[in-house]
Amino acid sequence: MGEMIEFQGNGSKVPGYFAASTNKRAGVIVIQEWWGLVDHIKDVCDRFADSGINALAPDFYRGKNTAEPDEATKLMMEMDYPQALKDMSGAVDYLLAHDNVRGEKVGVMGFCMGGALALALAAERPDAVGACVPFYGVHMWGPDSKPDYSRIKAGVRGHYAELDTFFTPEAARGLETELKGYGLDAEVKVYEGCDHAFFNDTRPEVFNEDAASDAWQDTLDFFDESLR
Q1: Rounded Cα–Cα distance for residues 124 and 151 (Å)
Q2: To the nearest 5 percent, what fractions of the chain are helix, strand and coil?
Q3: Is the pLDDT of residue 142 over 80?
Q4: Smallest Cα–Cα separation from 33: which of 123, 135, 160, 157?
Q5: Which residues are catalytic?
Q6: pTM for the complete prediction?
Q7: Domain total in the chain
């Protein structure tokens, strides 16, 4: 359904996957896991388009992706974090200027590394991000680069996993407490019996259909409410 495009990110061209809805509706940025812009992320964009929401996934790795954890770690560590912020900001501007996107703000959704980046974008562009949905992700690039969450104006709905040893339920609850401390509309749901990446249906060893279905419907409802 979607297609690869290029958009401007602080003067440089950024590749991305864009799936347009059949009518003029809201726009959402979908942010990859550490694997790269793989078919699963493209499929999430297509699912948004099927649901009437325009979706754009920036390609931070510029065409590289992997199914191997060691290589994914290498790609993530090589990613230029400040450039990633610029890429995402360019994606925001692309969506807001697109003829098929209506509204003055967009949503952002991300997984693992992308969940952390979704929160970073909400802090980087409080003027233009109206809803933020991180899946099993908290900031992971050290305290010196941690976003200023007090800048966030968007509502936040987090989806985390009870058995996650990367981003634990304790870390998720700590994030919720921190965001609420800034007066934000923030809620975190921890799915019992689920592991990290429970939403990824290309990974049968961790995919949980019931939790993924619940989280997806919650996400759609949240974006519909926040971005209408």
Answers
A1: 8
A2: 40, 25, 35
A3: no
A4: 135
A5: 112, 164, 196
A6: 0.95
A7: 1
Maximum alpha-carbon separation in the chain: 45
Q: How far is CA 120 from CA 57, 108, 141, in A?
A: 15, 10, 11
Counted residue by residue, the chain has a size of 228
Q: Which residues pair with 5 in a beta bridge?
A: 16
Per-residue pLDDT tens over the stretch 24-66: 889 999 999 999 999 999 999 999 999 999 999 999 999 999 9
Chain segment 61-108, per-residue pLDDT in tens: 999 999 999 999 999 999 999 999 999 999 999 999 999 999 999 999
Residue the block writes with tokens 């996934």:
57
> pLDDT value at position 24?
83
CB atoms under 10 Å from CB of 106, counted, come to 29
Within 13 Å of residue 147, how many CA atoms lie on the same side as its CB? 26
- Measured CA to CA, the distance from residue 75 to residue 80 in angstroms comes to 10
Nearest 5 degrees, angle CA 93-CA 17-CA 98?
35
Alpha-carbon span 104 to 35, nearest angstrom: 31
CATH number of the domain enclosing 111: 3.40.50.1820
pLDDT at residue 115, rounded to an integer: 96
What DSSP string describes 86-99?
HHHHHHHHHHHH-T
Q: Domain range spanning residue 25?
A: 3-227
